[in-house]
Write a structure and sequence with these properties.
single chain; alpha/beta; Rossmann fold; 5-stranded parallel sheet; 12 strands
């Protein structure tokens, strides 16, 4: 008989058990608990068929159709579970902690596994983390500065020095500008970004400060959850000042390795705001290898955007820090 765990009980005592997400691959791709293994009871197409029968005919007919899909695969599911959980202990969940997780838990229980299910399933996890972002208060210190100031490098140095840091751009797979996707893996969904962020948020020591880079609420296509954003807006702010020339050098070093066409395409993303004349000038500079000139054009635009952001949000500045060399040390 499967034991039913709340999300808190699972986090506190069962995180080392393999977590099987029995939802479809499409549901899993949209968002999943970090570390969960997709162990689908139905394929995407099978779930659509069963759902249609449930709505149009009834639950009994839907159950029979589901059994027709799953029955021939039951032995293979047990074999796969033995590979994933050699100690024969698993936690199983679906969307709401209903029939799908209950069915797989029953099967694995009969096959000799010690099984648990998550009360409320993935939906309960989502409610838990969204509430947690509001309820778990953290001592945030924001690190800000104009584009090219080397904020990410400073965050990495702070990690080396033992400070608590959450790299929002790293979790988002995006550097937060029109050029931010260059060299990055595809962005997660906002839902999955929140899932991954919560794991870091939960682990923080609330008595110690945590450093975050000052961001707009959107990082590429993902959004910082409201509970975190509210705390960021009230956090003290360390503003670093790096000379324009050093920032141009950093952008050339960071982005100069990418293909010219990728850089040009990124400039065209801000064409309306930057102006066609400046985009054309940047494109010509890139094609002719004058990357410093192109970087300077980008910085003039992003400096105005940053100054507008600071003026609008008016963060409480803890310290203004001059960094003439532009180096994190």
């Amino acid at each position: 008989m499967a034991r039913i765990l709340t999300i808190s009980e699972w986090i506190e005592g069962y995180r080392d058990w393999p977590l099987l997400d029995v939802r479809t691959p499409a549901e899993y791709a949209q968002g999943h608990i970090p570390g969960a293994i997709n162990f689908p009871l139905f394929s995407n197409e099978e779930r659509a068929v069963v759902g249609t029968i449930y709505k149009q005919v009834g639950p009994e007919e839907a159950l029979l159709r589901g059994l027709e899909f799953v029955g021939p695969r039951m032995a293979d599911m047990v074999r796969q579970a033995r590979q994933l959980a050699p100690e024969r202990r698993v936690v199983v969940h679906c969307w709401r902690g209903g029939q799908r997780s209950g069915s797989v838990a029953w099967l694995l229980d009969k096959a000799g596994f010690e099984t648990c299910t998550l009360q409320g399933g993935y939906k309960a996890w989502r409610n838990f983390i969204l509430d947690g972002f509001h309820q778990l208060k953290r001592r945030i210190v924001l690190l800000g500065g104009r584009t090219g100031s080397g904020k990410t490098a400073i965050l990495h140095e702070l990690v080396r020095l033992g400070e608590q840091v959450i790299d929002l751009e790293g979790l988002a797979h995006h550097k937060g500008s029109a050029f931010g996707a260059l060299g990055e893996q595809p962005q997660p969904t906002t839902e999955q970004f929140e899932n991954e962020l919560f794991v870091h948020w939960w682990r923080l020591d609330p008595e110690r400060r945590v450093w975050l880079e000052s961001e707009s609420r959107s990082i590429g296509r993902v959004f910082i959850p409201e509970g975190v954003w509210e705390q960021m807006r009230q956090a003290p702010y360390v503003r670093i000042h790096v000379p324009f020339e050093r920032r141009v050098e950093r952008l050339v070093a960071d982005y100069g390795r990418y293909e010219p066409e990728a850089l040009i395409a990124s400039f065209h993303k801000i064409r309306k705001r930057l102006g066609g004349q400046w985009v054309q000038a940047a494109e010509e500079a890139i094609r002719e290898g004058r990357l410093g000139e192109a970087a300077a054009i980008a910085l003039r635009y992003y400096d105005k955007t940053y100054d507008h952001f600071v003026e609008k949000h008016q963060p409480p500045v803890l310290i203004n820090l001059e960094v003439p060399s532009g180096k994190p040390e």
